[in-house]
């Protein structure tokens, strides 16, 4: 379809998701259907469709379910139930165990087994090696999930937080699922003017019954990629043209490896205590490593603090909690002295940050935002177990960094975790 010129009667306003509408300059018209060579290339490129992959050589490659790719295009059922053959790496990954695969961004994989939840068995088309990869590090080849600018289920406030990070120029953008309209998307763009300074504009991307997309009905596109390419060349009624996709941080892993997904009691010898970060009534907090290659936080409990049975009961519940505002429990050593292995937060104490550090310069809106995220984490905890869980992680926007805070909650002075608050 491309960008098409519609009837003069059609509406010319661009719809902002919540902030009203912005009107195009009167009399503006788009030209004929654009072709790809008319657009600038700043990383928005089409990924080749490898879903018609056929193995080379005499023997076909059999994926799980018994599909032989030498005689069939091969489909496999992923978490969403959609038949997809090949995936592409969105980030670099360094293997943590002998069962994992190391890979580079852009590497292609044939998924052999997706039944392990967050870890998929895959074969690299680059090296031919087979192993497990984290599922949130890859996306289907030639899909919008594989695009640099697609952020999926990202909330409006989180989008503004990321776009307003230090170093992003005017025109930094991302596309996310709409929070208000099912099946639609939102285009969020960093803008600047004399009155508001740096701020973010949001535009609704609607879907046509025929399958196309549009912001204004006068400019319609077959794909989101075409829409992005078009508005990267001209503002065409937007606040500014699209300049560069917003930077994506590394995705969070909920387990140390596929082996610790269900069996998370690990040998004490696999942990190395490197630097003590703090100590208190119930134990110490250390920065350390697991298997010599993965940085973690290790909380050691003083003998007699609680029985191993009570600790394991508490840890069972904590391990099940998976929320982006909750710090993730990775593994435990249940024999005394008890070790608790969690995500590592490397920016120090939240309390010190707010009282004596750079956080003293934060304005009221930032502080209110931090409090709101703490409340979000508290709701998640109450939903699971009436406030008995201790690990809370919250997002803290500050300068050029996206920080995270972890808060441990004391309950009747009988706690499994050392009270601390730290930033990532």
From TrEMBL:
Which InterPro entries does the record associate with it? Fyn/Yrk_SH2, Fyn/Yrk_SH3, Kinase-like_dom_sf, Non-receptor_tyrosine_kinases, Prot_kinase_dom, Protein_kinase_ATP_BS, Ser-Thr/Tyr_kinase_cat_dom, SH2
Which Gene3D superfamilies does this chain map to? Phosphorylase Kinase, domain 1 (3.30.200.20), SH2 domain (3.30.505.10), SH3 Domains (2.30.30.40)
Report the EC code(s) recorded for this entry: 2.7.10.2
What SUPFAM superfamilies does the entry give?
Protein kinase-like (PK-like), SH2 domain, SH3-domain
Domain annotation SH2: ranges:
149-246
Q: Where is this region: Disordered?
A: 15-37
Q: Please state every residue range assigned to the domain named Protein kinase.
A: 271-424
KW Phosphoprotein (keyword) present: yes
Alphabetical list of Pfam families matching this protein:
PK_Tyr_Ser-Thr, SH2, SH3_1
User: Which intervals hold domain SH3?
Assistant: 82-143
Q: Which residues does the annotation say bind ATP?
A: 299
Annotated GO MF terms = ATP binding; non-membrane spanning protein tyrosine kinase activity
Task: Name the domain of life.
Answer: Eukaryota
Listed A to Z, the keywords are: ATP-binding, Kinase, Lipoprotein, Myristate, Nucleotide-binding, Palmitate, Phosphoprotein, SH2 domain, SH3 domain, Transferase, Tyrosine-protein kinase
Q: Is Transferase given among the entry's keywords?
A: yes
What reaction does this catalyse? L-tyrosyl-[protein] + ATP = O-phospho-L-tyrosyl-[protein] + ADP + H(+)
Family per UniProt? Answer: Belongs to the protein kinase superfamily. Tyr protein kinase family.
What is the protein name for this chain?
A: Tyrosine-protein kinase
